[in-house]
User: What shape does this take?
Amino acid sequence: MLLTIENLQAEIDEKQILKGLNLDIKPGEIHAIMGPNGAGKSTLASVLAGKDAYEVTAGSVMFDGQDLLELGPEERARKGLFLAFQYPVEIPGVSNKLFMQTAVNAVREEQGLLALDMFDFDEYAKDKIELLEMRPDLLERSVNVGFSGGEKKRNDIFQMALLQPKLCILDETDSGLDIDALRLVANGINALRSESRSFIVVTHYQRLLDYIKPDFVHVLYDGKIIKSGGFELVHELEEHGYDEIIQQSK
Amino acid sequence: MVDAKNISELGSSDTQYQEINDLLDKNQHYKEGFFTSTHVETFKKGLNEDVVRAISAKKNEPDWMLDFRLKAFKHWQTLDEPHWAKAEYTPLDYQDYSYYSAPTCGSCSEDGVEAEIDPEVAKAFAELGVPIAGDDANIAVDAIFDSISVSTTKREDLAELGIIFCSFSEAVQDYPELVQKYMGTVVPYHDNFFAALNSAVASDGTFVYIPENVHCPIDLSTYFRINEAKTGQFERTILVADKGSYVSYLEGCSAPVRDTYQLHAAVVEVIVLDDAEVKYSTVQNWYPGDDDCKGGILNFVTKRGICEGKNSKLSWTQAETGSAITWKYPSCILKGDNSIGEFYSVALTNRRQQADTGTKMIHIGKNTRSTIIAKGLSAGKSDNTYRGLVKILPSAEGARNFTQCDSMLIGDQCGAHTFPYIEVENATAQVEHEATTSRIGEDQLFYCKQRGISEENAISMIVNGFCKEVFSELPLEFAQEAEELLAISLEGSVG
Assistant: This one.
């Protein structure tokens, strides 16, 4: 098991959001998490990544044999947990190159590998820039500054490709993307699929899932998973909406 | 004439040593905070006409210099200490400072024979990384220790090009006509309270003259070191770039850790003639004081340059990280047609530091241009203010200004303030002002950490990214020093 979540409860500003969530993910699996607004989807992503504002009040999360909740966000990242942000952040004056070279080398250090110098890094980044059809001057530009919404999301997937994580969490990466950007993001994700890499895809829409065909689909409502199924559950949701499932669960 | 000896006290300062080391232990983040125990000659505390005369006598100055001091002193007595800056301090007791302190060498004679530099003072500069032996090929240094210049390197090499690079005191003796021609022309003695005080009790400083069409091949620099307790440093720097010349000038500063405010009130005058260019860079790392900024430097400085000639250019770049209070507005008077003024500034405040800094761009000549890029970083419980004036006079046909002020807040107990004053009296002028304030985002930090980057690296990356436009204007070694200073000054400010 790569990730085991048991009875996870978490709150923000003393408001409970996650109310006993359970989820098991094996290496190589893709899990989609769907659900209405306010169900706790983004909270789950943030709690797994270790964002300060959230407080875990009960439950446990084991990641690759370790207690995930014991680790700081940077340690989680170095051990192979990656979050693609709903709103990727701008960092003026910091080049993508400096940013990602520092990040890649932090992960490599954790793995006992030698740091990449700037030439090795350029070489390493080259095909990934092409994969996501980023502008050739990407590495020289400041992190996400002056990027369109779609470019920012693609830049996150580019970072994911560089860091080669064990668990990729995509927090509404598909929202706000036009059809071309969506295809590029989906291609990026598919290119990273492997037997040892797992995904949690948080989304509102079917269209990204049509491209990447998740193994499991979960419906999150009021801080708990109320229904799980295979890819066919996506179509059921598209047809009937969440109401029916929510009613059944009550 | 008053005999200087009657007012001076000779003695060693060993007694203070233990106390200072104890303080140092509490202030480990300020690595320049050591104190040099050496034989010093320090005037008794207090300020009156006799003291002004004694300083002048001590320096064996000609009458015109003494007259300048006395005129300034008389005027200073009529002025009130200014408190309009966004920085709070209790009025200073000017009688509680000493106005002259100089290292003496026990073995050296007192009759004016050229004294070797005191080994303890040499050690202090070595520890600060200041190359006073002249062994760095790319830089010439004037090292100022308390009230006097103790060493000026590369003078002979520069003299071959006709460049004068010496202490202010020497210039008064050796180049009286040049000093008289320029002193007080850009910053008159009556300019303001601290400029008047400086004019009266100016201790030492640097004098630079670059002759016509000479491109100064190396950076010139001055390193200011305050060592004695309760001593004010009042240096006076004059830099003249004659027609068609170029010079890059740098200054750095530091002081030992103390438990009472130390006063630094300098005056800098820069004169740039036709087609000449001056780049003036400062990395200011005066002791900021303890966690409440007690004992820090009060940095009350008047810096101003005039682009006297056509097509002349003056560029100020400053990284201000130290001092308890900074009150400083390096300014350009753009008199020559097509002249250019630039101001690039990073001011960082932490703990209870207060900085009120900015610039004045006075456009007089036709097609004059100015650029202001000011970056303020506030952390801890500090206050950081940008105050700037862009003034376009009626004669300044076609003048242009671009101003950008960005403030970054680190934490939620600090303040950032912007006071831009714009006065336009010529309708052809173009003036642009942009300002932003941001908080070092928890979001930015989390984004970096989520990519595996440590908090320390993340902060230094974000802050240096914010300051990049300014640091890229600094000479390379200085830019690096400034980046390191930022990192040190910000230690422990987040999280």
